[in-house]
């Protein structure tokens, strides 16, 4: 790799950074492909590495070769992607067992879940918002937390409280 191009990229030169990406894009993609085994995931990881590289390049200190550093950056992105994928799969399996999720997935043509959604609309604001974002809009807890301006744990707590209230509300209506 041309040291001048690398130095200019570190200093914020967009053309030099673009050249650096073009030079190493195939390497990044090949590493991602070998680790994850799917074209779509490899492409997502490669794009993620390019973004990370833009933020991290100024922190490269030369303790190793650039390619070794890039290899580490790519493997970290692969691991992060694998963790996100595993977490998403666990969340989907957990949600599939949740009655709120099942109701949100049903078609409402027959009006069968109108009772549930009417009850959801009576919840306190934060609980209602959490339920609607996670179950109706199908956002992750993290994305719902961003929208609501709180932590993921807070979203989870609001959902827990909402389930308890909804159980009581729906049991009273059934009697």
TrEMBL record:
Pfam family, one: Sigma70_r2
Keyword Transcription regulation tagged: yes
Keyword Acyltransferase: no
Domain RNA polymerase sigma factor 70 region 4 type, chain residue ranges per copy: 116-166
Keywords: DNA-binding, Sigma factor, Transcription, Transcription regulation
GO molecular function: DNA binding; sigma factor activity
Domain of life per record: Bacteria
Cited Gene3D superfamilies: 1.10.1740.10, Winged helix-like DNA-binding domain superfamily/Winged helix DNA-binding domain
Any Gene Ontology biological process: DNA-templated transcription initiation
Residue intervals of the RNA polymerase sigma-70 region domain: 20-88
Similarity-based family: Belongs to the sigma-70 factor family. ECF subfamily.
Name under which the protein is recorded: RNA polymerase sigma factor
